[in-house]
Amino acid sequence: MNTRTIARRAALAGVTVTAALALAACGAGNHPPAGAGHDKSMSTPTGVPTSADASAFGDADVMFAQMMIPHHRQAVEMSELAATRAADPEVKRLAGEIKAAQAPEIATMSGWLAAWGRPVPSPGAELPHVDHGMPGMMPDEDMTRLASASGREFDRLFLTMMIAHHEGAVTMARDELSRGVNTEAKSLAEQIISAQQAEIDTMRRILARL
To answer: What is the pLDDT along the chain (210 residues), one digit of tens a residue?
Structure first.
């Protein structure tokens, strides 16, 4: 399987995420269980909070966090491989920056889900509505291939995969901006779009010179 095939498969994996988010938006579980005290806002008949308070959240916000956590975890896993397998110093530096940025975001989103009374994805675990596919998520066989590569081959494969991975994260973040109601989640979505789009540009430049 060449890097173009990997990128194409990663892009195709994102086709279903909009449908998954649309289904989630139809749910009624837009606030914590009664008495939990996390959602202090009034809700519309559809269950969407009307308050601008940071504690207000909807199903799209929950979906965003539950999908972005495993997505970030895979990016961190890919970045950790670069420490011992990458040959290009710029690839190693960029991988370190990706890990440093996304690991704290995983902790932040996990905290939101806990506060909202929603399941926090565990590594390798499946959650309802999260099995519809995430844009840019690499299948196991591609992760295995990346882990077995080294040197210049690793650099090219890492960049190709991470570009597709970042593009998937940007897609999910844009969905959150259009569907979400939680102010903190939407703020993180904006940060993800800005940071990862800049990293995509950097990776394309590095890939062009390799």
So the answer is: 555 555 445 444 443 444 343 434 444 344 443 333 344 333 333 333 433 355 799 999 999 999 999 999 999 999 999 999 999 999 999 999 999 999 999 999 999 999 999 999 988 655 544 445 689 999 999 999 999 999 999 999 999 999 999 999 999 999 999 999 999 999 999 999 999 999 999 999 999 999
Q: Whole-prediction pTM value?
A: 0.74
Residue numbers of the domain that contains 198: 3-25+55-209
73 in any annotated domain: yes
Q: What six digits make up the tokens of 67?
A: 């999908």
Alpha helices in 16-150 (DSSP H): 17-25, 59-85, 89-116, 140-148
Which pair of tokens denotes residue 181? 């109601």
Tell me the torsion sign for CA atoms 7, 9, 12, 18. negative
> The CATH number of the domain where 198 resides is what?
1.20.1260.10
